[in-house]
Amino acid sequence: MSSLLGGVIFVAIMIPVFLTSMFIPYWTRKTESFGVSIPEEVYHYNELKGFRKSYATRVGIFSVVIAAVFLLFSAGGLESEQAFSWLFSTIILTYLVGSFIIYLRYHNRMKVMKKEQGWQKEKPQRTVIDTSFRDQKLTYSNAWFLLPLAVTVATIFMTFSFFDRIPDRIPMQYDFAGNVTNWADKSYRSVLFMPVMQVYLIGLFLFINSMTARAKQQVSAEKPEESKARNVIFRRRWSLFLILTSVGIVLLFSLIQWSFIFSVPQSLLVYTPILFGAAVTIASIWIAYTTGQGGSRVQMTTTDSGDVIDRDDDRYWKLGQFYFNKNDPSLFLEKRFGVGWTINLARPLAWIIFLVIIGLAVGLPLILGV
């Protein structure tokens, strides 16, 4: 692989990662700062503004260093895609560890500042639960997943209708130059690999959409009505994103399946996934930027008062990111630092879900002989 191609791939994948990492503190709820709960009015203090700016700068500098290291090692050209994969994986791991260390510094500074300032003692704490919250339409209907399912059924029907036209060896993977790097012998199991993966992904997206609707209700005690309205918008936007992404991925897999039967340009098979991946990445960043965590960036004005603040539950958030609370029946809830949802790791069901998702992802290709 040439250094130019490797550099282009690296930039296309990592620039969104760099930008997301830098600006996460600006996208979280205003009642949270670097994994620490705070009163909303504190979010606008100059010192905390300085923290966010300093964090973004440090992560930005670290991102530039990481990019420079990658380009330096790949300058002479990479002998194979395997060499590129090893280098890229090492760079990714280094970046994740390094950026987390930077985060921990600000997380610890926030904990110290919160203790010194005694913000939680200035106003009474309260947990707000709106019993009518789930009466609203929090996500789009799971019935929308019938669309990608219909595409999958059509793909299976077409596969068996034209089974005799499928070559004896099926291309399963291409490099960035359009060359086949992995083949599978034709069989009923191998030709079903793409449709089975389509069903798996549809099920996964449907599960995530359902959990988006059922995730723990988090209503701000300071501005309950505004918080509730923002949260509904937040959930519905990400629900729509999930549905559209699932349709796109299923169509992409169908295109690959069709290439076994009909003549499809290799360039289309190589660049369509890249363009689709770029579109999904840009869309997710745009939603995160315009919506924020829990709808925190949605423009809205209410007359809610700030006489009370949210109950302090920092003790359940390990390092400000990992939620352990065996007394909380909720399985899914919003991330404390970031945009999206996380899981209550104190619940045994959480680990069962992890094992099932990973087990199916690893086991299905083995079962289907791919």
Automatic annotation (TrEMBL):
One Gene Ontology biological process: response to toxic substance
Signal peptide stretch: none
InterPro entries xref list: DUF1648, DUF5808, UCP032908
Transmembrane regions listed in the UniProt entry: 6-27, 59-78, 84-106, 143-163, 188-208, 238-262, 268-289, 349-368
Keyword Transmembrane helix: yes
Domain DUF1648 residues, every copy: 151-198
One Pfam family from the record: DUF5808
Domain DUF5808: 326-351
Keyword hit for Transferase: no
Keywords in alphabetical order: Membrane, Transmembrane, Transmembrane helix
Family annotation (PANTHER family): IMMUNITY PROTEIN SDPI, MEMBRANE PROTEIN
Record protein name field: DUF1648 domain-containing protein
